[in-house]
Write a structure and sequence with these properties.
The structure is a single chain. The protein is mainly alpha-helical and 500 residues long. The chain has two domains: 426 residues, Growth Hormone, Chain: A (Up-down Bundle); 48 residues. The chain has 16 helices and two strands. Helix 1 runs antiparallel to helix 4, helix 2 packs parallel to helix 4 and helix 14 packs antiparallel against helix 15. It is found in: Cell membrane. This is MFS transporter. It comes from Streptomyces gibsoniae.
Length: 500
């Protein structure tokens, strides 16, 4: 029996069914979350096994991000209309199937294609996990359920790089992807048996598939142009221009459709626009940092995949432990100072990372930089989400969170594509410790500069939220590559797909 968004759910957190719902949503979201953190650690081994160029490693990351960032808003809308459990289960099965293809890929082309398919599955299951919690639990228990979900997800994010490194060092990099198959075999049956179906009940039955396709196409073509610019192919500027044209067409379509994926009027809020510009700066720097640092630790510092994955734990652990407290502090003093100080701390952490070279000491060289970086992330991530929600009406809080999450993913996508180009990394740079180290030392100041721009924007534009604005339900957050998604609100909003 389906439950519409207008009916009050009655499932309690402490009940048997409530426990099963949390288990399946945590399993589902962890699949996508783990994939966003563990793959970076496996990149050098993937490149070595395939004899691949640096652009192949970039595409291994970005093929996934293109489809995920481009389609995540549409994924939320499909769940709202066709049934959140149905779309969630389809996403889990799709993601696992694509993961199997990644693990069995005989060449880089198939791996990259399978990664793009993974992103489609992630776009279906990621918004669905939170929407299921919102639709299933009693209003009095919803905040607790979201807290348990985000806390468990944060633990998964914390151990992800460690697990990834252990798998790469042990059975091999293919198991980074194959691990998703048993998780899906647990998740999907539990969802079908224990999670009630729900739908938003909006009734219009229309979806902005054209807008989603144009958005994904714009991301894909511009990313291709940035990654392949080193090749000198005459097709690169043509495809880059087509990517820009697709972006312009996306904006035009969103302005003229009755049910746009990303309604332009939401940007009428100057605060919402400003905080999304800050998001672009912050998560572009983060995306470039974590992509390059995983390579720097292995290619230059000589760390094993396991040691490199473990080395990155402090930032995630700090966020998991202190993000809720940071959010509470920002509620008392306002978001302007945290959103200014946080990026500046992260910038200092990235500059400290330039000390990490050959035979770097973890305690002396790596750990101080990551602790400063983690402190900055703790300071800014929770206030960033709170400011996004506070800048729109309560009914649009889920949509605003979805747009902000997609913007962060797109920013990371472009950073991974552009940084090797602007720092002069050649196709074989990751095979040479000296060449990669030189480019890394040029990249970190660039990432720090982007963070400084974000801090200046925040100081100049962010103001204290109005009284009575919506607050984040995801208080603890451990993902270092994207801000947390917020669930749809009880007012009838349909979350990340509310306005589609």
């Amino acid at each position: 029996m389906a439950v519409t968004a207008r009916e009050a759910p009655a499932i309690r957190v402490g009940s048997s069914q409530g426990t099963w719902i949390l288990v399946t949503t945590v399993l589902g979201s962890s699949m996508a979350l783990l994939d966003s953190t563990v793959v970076n650690v496996a990149l050098p081994r993937i490149g070595r096994d395939f004899g691949a160029s640096l652009s192949t490693l970039q595409w291994t990351v970005n093929a996934y991000m293109v489809t995920l960032a481009g389609l995540i808003l549409l994924g939320g809308a499909l769940g709202d209309h066709f049934g959140r459990r149905k779309i969630f289960v389809i996403g889990v099965v799709w993601f696992a199937t694509a993961s199997l293809l990644c693990g069995l890929a005989p060449n880089p082309g198939i791996l990259i294609g399978a990664r793009a398919l993974q992103g489609i599955g992630g776009a279906l299951l990621t918004p669905g996990s939170l929407a299921l919690i919102q639709a299933s639990f009693h209003p009095d228990d919803r905040a607790r359920a979201v807290g348990l979900w985000s806390g468990c997800g944060g633990i998964g994010a914390a151990i992800g790089p460690f697990v990834g490194g252990w798998l790469v060092d042990g059975p091999g990099w293919r198991w980074v992807f194959l691990l998703n198959v048993p998780l899906a075999l647990l998740c999907a049956p539990i969802a079908l048996r224990h999670v009630p179906e729900s739908a938003g009940g909006d009734g219009h039955g229309r979806f902005d598939a054209l807008g989603a396709a144009l958005g994904a196409l714009a991301l894909a073509l511009t990313t291709y142009a940035l990654i392949e610019a080193r090749s000198g192919s005459p097709a690169v500027p043509v495809l880059g221009a087509l990517g820009v044209a697709a972006g312009v067409a996306f904006v035009y379509v969103e302005k003229h459709r009755a049910y746009p994926m990303m309604p332009p009027d939401i940007f009428a809020s100057r605060q919402f626009t400003a905080v999304n510009l800050v998001t672009l700066c912050v998560y572009a720097a983060f995306g470039g940092f974590f992509f390059l640092t995983a390579l720097q630790l292995q290619v230059v510092a000589g760390y094993s995949p396991l040691r490199a994955g473990t080395a990155l734990l402090p930032t995630t652990v700090l966020m998991l432990l202190f993000s809720a407290r940071s959010g509470s502090l920002a509620e008392r003093i306002g978001p302007r100072i945290p959103l200014t100080v946080g990026p500046l701390l992260c910038a200092v952490g990235m500059l400290l990372m330039t000390r990490v070279g050959k035979d770097a000491s973890y305690v002396v060289d790596v750990l101080p930089a990551l602790l400063v970086m983690g402190a900055g992330m703790v300071t800014l991530v929770a206030p960033l989400t709170a400011t996004v929600l506070a800048s729109v009406d309560t009914a649009r809080a889920g949509l605003a969170s979805g747009i902000n999450n997609a913007a962060a993913r797109a920013a990371g996508l472009f950073a991974v594509a552009a940084l090797p180009l602007v720092t002069g990394m050649g196709p074989e740079a990751y095979r040479s410790a000296d060449a990669f180290d030189a480019a890394f030392r040029r990249a970190m100041p660039l990432c720090a500069a982007v963070l400084v721009v974000g801090a200046v924007l925040a100081f100049a534009t962010v103001r204290r939220p109005r009284a009575g604005c919506p607050h984040p339900e995801c208080r603890a957050h451990g993902c270092v590559t994207t801000p947390p998604l917020e669930p749809p609100r009880e007012t009838g909003a349909s979350g990340t797909g509310a306005a589609t």
